[in-house]
Design a protein that fits this description.
Layout lengths: L2 H4 L2 H22 L11 E5 L1 H10 L7 H13 L3 E5 L6 H14 L5
Parallel strand pairs: 1-2
Helix pairs in contact: 2-4, 3-4
Length: about 110
């Protein structure tokens, strides 16, 4: 995320979601697909505590808690946008992504 988004807390999170959706829609149009009838699903996975510390360290944010506000703004902007805190652990984000892949590609309806 850009620093100008990170410094705006929840508003910044909504701006990130808007920018991401605009870029994805631009890409979809380039594929000659119908943007109006295409649902965009976004799941961003991160260790919020660790990422927040890194953002404070490089002066992108004043407080580690601010990243939680950005994530809230991002998640609340669109119904299919989620910012998921995976917690501490080196492979946690990868684990979640693999889980989502399995969910959507090997799902059985009971």
């Amino acid at each position: 995320f850009r620093d100008d988004f990170l410094n705006k807390n929840e508003v910044g999170g909504r701006l990130v979601a808007d920018e991401l959706l605009a870029q994805v829609n631009h890409y979809i149009k380039g594929l000659n697909l119908d943007v109006e009838n295409t649902d965009v699903v976004v799941r961003a996975y991160a260790n919020l505590r660790g990422l927040g510390k890194a953002c404070v360290k490089n002066n992108s944010m004043k407080s580690t808690a601010d990243l939680g506000l950005v994530a809230n703004g991002f998640t609340s902007r669109y119904p299919l946008f989620d910012f998921v805190d995976v917690g501490l652990g080196k492979e946690r984000a990868d684990h979640k992504i693999r889980g989502q892949y399995l969910l959507h590609h090997q799902m059985h309806v009971l």
